[in-house]
Predict the structure.
Amino acid sequence: MGITVQIEPVDKSFTAEESQTVLEAALKAGITLKHSCRNGQCGECRAPILSGAVSYKKTESIKLEQSDLEGRTGLMCVGHAISDLVIEAPEVTELEGISVQKCAGRTMAKETVSDDVAVLKIAPAPGVNFAFKPGQYLDLTIKGYATRSYSMASTDSEGLIELHVRKMPGGAVSPIIVDELKHKAIVTIEGPFGTFYVRDSDRPMVMIASGTGFAPVKSMMQGLIASGNSRPVALYWGGRAKQDLYMDKLCQQWAEQNSWFSYTPVLSENTDAGWVGRTGFVHQSVVDDLPDLSAYEVYVCGAPIVVSSAKRDCIGLCGLNPDHFFSDAFV
């Protein structure tokens, strides 16, 4: 018999089986809770526990805070309910109607856009409407290899799903995708996952991306352009070298064609001959340019250190409301 999980303050409940995490059970029931990494690393799914308890299978591999160890909060993406549970976790209603699907896909195109990044385009199986909100991600599985997560860089109206894959040194999967995956190869995709998406508000937005953290930003921007957006958007894209800004020309085009959009590329290593742009940490450029973020929303995607540094300084130094900081750390 399953365990009942009650969500407050929305007063909704669902049943969780022993083998399911609280998040898995919620998604299966059509209820989206705030989450990102799904492996206990980023803390996005942490929720206060009002009654009951959760357990973790591998505590040594997840990032638990003292409140988790004391049972006052829990990581819902890796926590298993061990008794009827009541948690405080507002439902993400803007994702209603978007359900997790698992299906076959076929690789339709692959383009190398830098020394270590490839743009992969996948067609879902015929008849499958793989709906997602710009900013979300999927799980990609190639037969015989481990599953990896990648943010969609397209919108769900385009037919093909675009992914940006960086070849990680010593990686078990990314070198296979970048160097060996053949045209029209069959893969498995599952998703969408994550609650990283543009919120419906009138606040101006700052988007901070590092490396292939640009992928969900591209999806978000395409969605904003298609919807006739007029909210101010400032994109700061950081990389080590100029080649890491592998779609720099696209960002420049957005700036030329949309008066509400501005683009600032930032290199952390000033080694490119002729580079006259900004250098240093990408989030520091935001702090320098926008010392008062109290009226803004900030969206950050990429390396964990970029996400954590941006959160610390945007909130601590620039007065950003913590509720208006949204992120997806590539952990």
Summary: The longest strand covers residues 101-112. DSSP finds seven helices and 19 strands in the chain.
